[in-house]
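User:
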Amino acid sequence: MARTAEMRLIELMILKQDISAVIEYIGKKETFQFQKNFKEGSSEKKSDSAFDIDSNFYTSLRNASVNLGIPLDDSDFNIKDVSCPTQEDRDTAARLIKAYNELSEEIEEKNNEVAKCTDAYKEALAFANLKVSFSEIDNLSFLSLRVGKIDAALFDQMKEELGVRAVVVALGEDKTHVLIAASKKNSAEVDVELKKQGFVALEVPKDFEGVPQDVLDGLANQKKKVEAEAAELETTRANFAETHKVQIHTLIKSFAIGVQIEDVVRNLESTELVYRITGWVPASECETYMKELDNITESRIAFREYSPFEVPAVVAGKEQVPVKLKHGRFVKSFERMIFSYGSPVYGTIDPTPFVAIFFTLLFGIMFGDLGQGLVFVLLGILMSLKVIKVGGWNKFAPIFTAIGISSSLMGLLTGEFFSNETLLEPFSEWVTGLFGTPHAPILKMMPSSDPNSIIAMFGVFGVAVGIGFIINTIGLLLNIINNINRRRFDEAFFGKNGLAGAIFFWYVIALVIRIVVFKHSIAVYDWIILGVSLFLAAFAEPFENLVAGRKPLLENGFGTYLISGVVELIEVISGYLSNTVSFVRVGAFALSHAVLDFLILTLTNMVGGEGSVFGILILVVGNAIIILLEGMIVAIQVIRLQYYEFFSKFFHETGREFQPFRFVNE
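Assistant: Predicted structure:
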């Protein structure tokens, strides 16, 4: 039987110059689990200026990508295609960030200038038709206007010095006459600066009314000019983003790896020159690690390998060996169902293949319809090809395909195709004709007055209980074998789920078959076998302690032992009875599915049949409801049967799931 993957603890001694390359290899290999939980020691992180530099680059590049509109959620991007940053990457990142910052500052300044010019133009425009003198406008408005002469050579310098405090508009081609517009609160500062630049104010006639048209035109032209410059800068930014998109994206991933590497490095045990790494890897990977790390470091590495029971913490029970399951694509898709209940203990039998078979079989029995099953098959194929993308659910594509196939096969037996029971009649008659009188369907499940349908329904219930017996039996065998392998003979031979309980369960089933089928009567030896096995299952405490070498044999005295034994006796009998009868629900759901199909078919016929518009509508909507709602209900019931009737037999303690270090696409 398949066991959990064999693991080894490896110890690496690495020189400081090689540590980043080694961690990068480990992260991309994705088969190494650090022995130490870094989260627990995060407060002990050592300071590292290189880490801070790479972290700053990473943060700056991500901010730049967001502001430039460069998407980072590229699911097809493989982080294994990039490496940790080199000095050349840092130099490139520095140049990109500098260019981006300069462009951003220029855009911000230009946007401020646009806002300033817009405000000045609106303010002047508001007073354009006001029939008061220019001097009164200058006194009442929030806008302070200055008209004067300057040296044309100083125009650009004066404009730069005034910055956002004022709008400077040339009133002629030679730039010797200018209009200065500033807010009242900045007017004093502006006047000081104008004086420094040799500005000579021109007198505006006291009786001049409104705002001169040439002033308005100058402000309007200035506004249009800076708006055009701002638009040009936005185009430049878009071009910058498009030109550097791939480079920025790659650098972000590179620095993401660098940050994660340094985050690990800062938690490692180290001297001034050497780092020590310990971690769990599958035994099959050890030789590969040794050869490839030796090549990466040019033989500057020390490598030691330990079996789990050479590790003191494991022997003392302070550390569990991580559990890795090794499967093909189909069985692997069921692993999450195992780990959601608990991880198997290291060295025990892997239950995942059994879960894959049982889940597929039980779902198909309860959801028998060829058409509806093919919908699941199609969905699984499309998810597998990633035509349909549903995030993490795509890894469950094999499950959808498998349950679709099993449902389709059950549908062939029951003759149901999207709730129609006539389309498959030729196939059913051909198959049944090979073994006798042709009839359709092969297995009658839909409500009918035909007495054969009653027999078929009870036959399905019998098959369901039989499957339940097999599932319970395999669960008991897993528990017995696992405990024998782990040298826990007390738990393997005694108790409800040990050999004693299993013998009682199996013998009761065999006895019932003998009585019902072969008309045997109960003999004395039957009572002896049942009594002894039941006693060892219910009153197991002293026998378990004796085999395990624990003393005293009755820890809490004979009275407590007797009471707990009686309670356990009831639990053993009722438990095995409920474990078996629980599988009757499989037949019940198979019957309910057929009833739902029958209901849809009846409603379709009531509104004109499958050839009418309303009939087609009922067929489509009805089948969609069955696929969605009953599909979920059946899946939940199958999972419940796995958890309570199968896992409960051998999952008495959980192990530690193998969670290797890997780089994250952030």
